[in-house]
Amino acid sequence: MTAADRRIDRRQDQFHTWGVYGLLVVSALLAAVASDLMAGPAEWYAAGALVVAAAVLQLWHGPRHGRRTPSRRGTVYYVLRWAISFALTWLNPLFGFYASTGYLDADELIPGTRRQRLGLFATSVVVASSQAGGMPFHSPVQWALFGVMLVTMNVLLMVAGHFAQQEEQRSRDRAATIVELERTNTALQQALDENAALHAQLLVQAREAGVADERRRLAAEIHDTIAQGLTGIIAQLQVVANAPDLDIARTHLERASALARDSLGEARRSVHNLAPVALTNDGLPEALKNTVAEWGERTGIRAEFTVTGPAEQFHEEVAATLLRIAQEALSNASRHARATRLGVTLTFLGDEVILDIRDDGRGFDPLADRARTRTGGFGLDGMRARAERIAGTLTVESEPGHGTAVSARVPLVRHDR
To answer: How much is the pTM?
Structure first.
């Protein structure tokens, strides 16, 4: 509660406490001035005694400290005060000012709406009689005036009561709205706290997913580059061990050295997530051409590379993905296919690029379960994962004794520079 609200409540308490005394004093003074309205000393003594009784009754009721709750004690006080005011008004109509106190606190003293209305009606009877000249009435004019005043006051009381009920209903609605808003704010704050916790959890999961994805990337890069390079080096060194003369041994040693240098470069680029060595200075068609030629020279298998359609510049991620798929397919062919001929075709089809690798090797059954090698190779699954990472697809067609065809189809994302 604000300071202004407390100040208003304090003033209301003072009004309800001292207002009754004030109206009693005003009524007594006016009655004393209009002394001709009372017949003789007996009425004066009676009026004085009733004024003292009203003051004592008010002292018994006590001061107001906040809005009162209707009770039986309050009803007794209201009835006694009304009886005193009725008697005083009978003695002198100017005591009607004191009688009007019944309008001030009927809702705080009398329980029940019907009883409150009855109390207000009784008060209006006393006030109307005082305004009509006081009781007992001696002429029809007084009775008519009394009737008009009584009806008028009760109509006004009904209208005022109706407005008061509407205001109370609005107050209750506002209070209910405030409670609902507080409940909504509490729920909203809880939702915000839950969202913050969920956001933090998602950040942790995203970080963990990023770490896992980076591990898979490095594993695939090592498999597709360093492991294949080391395999080639081992093959060249085996030839050296069985070479019949020094020139042949020197040739294969030079190839092994070149493979080692390439593997070292690939290792460095894999760590830094850079483009493959073959794409450093050349585009994808030229890099594929050189890769196929070197592979054919190293393995002794007849290998051909073909480009169809108008060549375009690739985004570096698309180019790197297709080159890695080609390298893995060539590695698989050299290790497993026992092929005598292999062809690589790069086809540009508007918004798509297709990479086909076909060999005439021994083939295999694509539907059969493939045992994972002791070296943990990625093979077809790794190639398929690479293609799907850039919204592409990879299909494999093979049959035992009839070779293998690997086809990667990816969107053509043009160079962004």
So the answer is: 0.45
